[in-house]
Amino acid sequence: MSRYKENFGRFTIRNAEGADAPKLFYYMEHVDRETTFLAREPGEFAESYTLEQEEKLLAGWAQGDEKLFLIAETEDGEIAATCGCFYSGGRRRARHLAEIAVSVRQDFWRQGLGKRLMTIQLNWCKEHEIEKLKLTVDTRNTRALGLYLSLGFEVEGTLRHEGRLADGAYCDMYAMAKFF
Ligand SMILES: CC(C)(COP(=O)(O)OP(=O)(O)OC[C@H]1O[C@@H](n2cnc3c(N)ncnc32)[C@H](O)[C@@H]1OP(=O)(O)O)[C@@H](O)C(=O)NCCC(=O)NCCS
Q1: For the CA of 113, the nearest atom of ligand 1
Q2: Ligand 1 pocket, Cβ-based, cut-off 6 angstroms
Q3: Owning domain of residue 60
Q4: What is the mean pLDDT, run by run of 10 residues, along the chain of 180 residues?
Q5: Residue whose CA is closest, atom 5 of ligand 1?
Q6: How many whole angstroms separate alpha carbon 154 and alpha carbon 145?
Q7: Of ligand 1's atoms, which has the minimum distance to the CA of residue 145?
């Protein structure tokens, strides 16, 4: 079981639990409108999951050891950031691999949240004997690239037209990885 809780400045960083599902819907809707650098179009998160499904997922992750899904909360209980890290697959040949995704609400950028969340996840990977941690990032996302490079990720290659936005524009992505 991967339980985590710490105070980080005015934020509390902890596992998301089932009861956080309504706040998480609000958060996802909000961040998906702020940037095109996340994987979803605005509104798509709520189309993909019901509240009940999300509650179950969060409760399962909080109990299990396959995924660490963290939120950073303000003193008012609002979600300021999320970061999820999970094994790439159940097969033995992929057991050394994990993937990670992070987002921070724009009002809380540049306060160290992204870096702190990722650093906690890197420790989780070491504890779980992960050898390679993977992510993809839009080639124009200089902010996220700066974060990943500062944490020791390297660019493995470019995935062309890996995303297509609602207006038809294509996005190229870097496949990045950190080796432990
Ligand atoms: C990318 C993101 C997660 C960074 O979060 P953050 O909390 O603002 O980042 P931090 O304050 O922890 O900064 C960490 C590092 O990021 C880098 N960084 C942050 N802002 C940057 C900028 N404007 N330009 C270049 N690098 C930047 C720096 O390396 C910084 O380290 P430093 O402060 O020691 O110099 C956040 O901007 C975000 O959620 N963006 C929208 C969603 C997104 O793009 N997610 C990633 C999808 S792959």
Answers
A1: 7
A2: 35, 37-38, 102-104, 109-115, 137, 141-144, 146-147, 150
A3: 5-179
A4: 88 97 96 95 92 95 92 98 92 94 98 98 96 98 98 98 96 98
A5: 114
A6: 10
A7: 26
Report the candidate in 63, 128, 119, 60 with the shortest Cα–Cα distance to residue 97: 128
| CATH number (domain holding residue 46) | 3.40.630.30
CA 83 to CA 69: how far, in whole Å?
A: 6
Write down the pLDDT at residue 172. 98
Burial class of residue 13 in the structure, from the number of CB atoms within 10 Å of its CB (0-12 exposed, 13-18 middle, 19+ buried): buried
Output the residue whose Cα is nearest ligand 1's atom 7. 114
- Residue 47 alpha carbon to ligand 1 centre in Å: 28
Cβ-contact 158, 139 below 8 angstroms: yes
Tally the domains of the chain: 1
The rounded Å distance from CA 94 to ligand 1 centre is 29
Q: What is the pTM of this model?
A: 0.95
Phi, psi angles (nearest 5°) of residue 149:
-65, -35
